[in-house]
């Protein structure tokens, strides 16, 4: 990988002598491999719990208020299976986005601005580790004259290219798009697929719920309100109106998020990079190549599955231009 000039927006220290490695606390000796990634943030945990509760509420209203009392058995079965399948995929995507390390091991290692790293050091890097800008670590890199390492002054770590520090996760995240409290995690290059799927499936179940609510209101207006639901008419109306507000709100929100994420992937430019108008120093690729870099190679039904880990294949997302 080529060593390239750094633009003015990065909060780095340009020269190794200014890294002040003696002030850095060494990272834990144990590897992060095999450990679960989870951000202990009260606001994020609360938002994640609320997200699951809202999905369960929607499922409750759809099943017990609209589908179970329906006399059309085929209509109830088809819509019940479809809605619950989409809801399951949405929650599975949320689970993966929340508990996935935003930066994968191999990607973090290959993105470091060094030409030579020992294999043992590579295997120790998961997410950008806190406090690895120690004197011993820097000396072990065996930097050649002219090579530069970059340190994040906030988490005292060697900072990869295109990494930004997250004040909630308290470490640097490569290709960080934003920190989303609804998934209690940063959206980075290793979990962006799951976040995109989460927004897509939430938008789909929201639209599906709105359509079913519309049909149910028409059915109740034509029939006796006491026969169109197992609940009393006032309770039925309140439950349906609340579901309408929830579905409409999340349909708009997740549709916008889905669109911005797809645009970010196609342009290969994160939300933070767009906001800061950072200089583009990486090779420009086609939109299709950028999509495959996030969702995996080659194109398959696995793109829609939150259980399939993206396979980078022969993609090289770390090409830089001078």
Automatic annotation (TrEMBL):
UniProt-listed Pfam families: DHHC
KW Acyltransferase (keyword) present: yes
The protein's Enzyme Commission number: 2.3.1.225
Keywords: Acyltransferase, Membrane, Transferase, Transmembrane, Transmembrane helix
Limits of the Palmitoyltransferase DHHC domain: 151-277
GO MF: protein-cysteine S-palmitoyltransferase activity
Domain of life assignment: Eukaryota
Segments crossing the lipid bilayer: 43-67, 73-92, 194-217, 237-258
A GO cellular component entry from the record: membrane
Membrane protein topology class: Multi-pass membrane protein
InterPro entries for the chain: Palmitoyltrfase_DHHC, PFA4/ZDH16/20/ERF2-like
Subcellular location: Membrane
Reactions listed under catalytic activity: L-cysteinyl-[protein] + hexadecanoyl-CoA = S-hexadecanoyl-L-cysteinyl-[protein] + CoA
Parts forming coiled coils: none
Annotated family: Belongs to the DHHC palmitoyltransferase family.
Domain notes: The DHHC domain is required for palmitoyltransferase activity.
Protein name: Palmitoyltransferase
Natural source organism: Terrapene triunguis (Three-toed box turtle)
